[in-house]
Amino acid sequence: MPVAELGTVRIRYERYGDAGDPLVLVHGSWVDHRTWGRVAPSLGDSMRVLAYDRRGHGGSTGPVRTHPVKDDAEDLADFLVATDLYPAHIVAHSYGGCVAFRLAGTRPELVRAVVVHEPPGLGFLEDDPASALEARALRAGVNQLQQSVRQGAVDFAARTFVTAFAQDPGAWDRMPAETKATFLANAPRWLEEVSDPEIDRPDVSGLSESMSPVLLTEGTESPPFLRRMTEALAHRLGNVYLERVPDAGHFPHLTRPAQYVGLLHRFLVERDVPAM
């Protein structure tokens, strides 16, 4: 895999495709660039695709992040400049959405469009009296998982996380051993990320002046609280589209790859989103 040298940070990545608009895939917590393996090659048929490991994940290295969202967004900006592939479409999953929003708000010249599937936003639920009680219960669950990781019960934390987000008690047991190992190795990185206040209320203030379109997606089979977070965020954005992915949950790029690629193709390629 090629490596981009960004000062003290080294970013490993894979390329797919050699023609069309540039597109960068930003993975969520617990995983690395390999989570995009079922969609990146197909996306490479029409675009120049980069799938990379965020700092501290997979083959990417660098100093410990003190403000994960900010640090990851700055890494992504430096990565786009170093590879000379910008302005780019940014497609992100879950926590990666916070990174995409910050990049689009602070470095709009690097971004052509943003697509995010079910970004976090527990704070938005806490702000709404109608969902505040549910939010408190979710917050207690997150706190318990954080404590489990700190105490070394990483397997329990990973299993609980996967079960909750996949809504399937057997999902963890069916995962390949390599995927489980990736989750366990990245648990400390998740602990850093979930401790960043910015993931409670992703900062989209900078997007108010941006001309880049934003597509938020949610799975029809996802836990309801994830859909409520996505929709709450949609209300805070201006140039935004909201689309549901039928028969998909929190991981459409894994469970419905062909369908997800088609959705991205329609939004990014067939709409011919221009460079700003």
Brief digest:
A hairpin with a 2-residue loop joins strand 1 and strand 2 (9-16). Helix content is 43%, strand content 17%.
Can you describe this structure?
- The protein is 43% helix and 17% strand.
- Helix 2 packs across helix 3, helix 5 packs antiparallel against helix 6 and helix 5 crosses helix 9.
- The chain contains twelve helices and eight strands.
- Strands 1-2-4-3-5-6-7-8 form an eight-stranded mixed beta sheet, sandwiched between helices.
- The relative contact order is 0.16.
- It has 276 residues and is α/β, with parallel strands linked by helices.
- The longest helix has 19 residues.
- The mean pLDDT is 94.
- It has two domains: 190 residues, Alpha/Beta hydrolase fold, catalytic domain (Rossmann fold, 3-Layer(aba) Sandwich), CATH 3.40.50; 67 residues, no CATH class.
- Helix 3 links the parallel strand 5 and strand 6.
**Structure class:** alpha/beta
Q: What is the count of DSSP helices, taking H or I runs of 4+ residues?
A: 12
Low-pLDDT segments, ≥5 res: none
Beta-strand segment tally: 8
Order of helices and strands: EEEHEHEHEHHHHHHEHEHH
Q: Overall mean pLDDT score?
A: 94
Range of strand content: 15-25%
Q: Strand order across the biggest sheet?
A: 1-2-4-3-5-6-7-8
Main sheet attributes: strand count, strand direction, barrel closure? 8 strands, mixed
Tell me the helix content. Answer: 40-55%
* Overall shape: globular
Which CATH-level-2 architecture of the largest domain? 3-Layer(aba) Sandwich
State the end-to-end distance.
Answer: 30 Å
User: Could you tell me the radius of gyration in angstroms?
Assistant: 17 Å
CATH superfamily of the largest domain: Alpha/Beta hydrolase fold, catalytic domain
CATH class of the largest domain: Alpha Beta
Total count of domains: 2
Q: How is the CATH topology of the largest domain named?
A: Rossmann fold
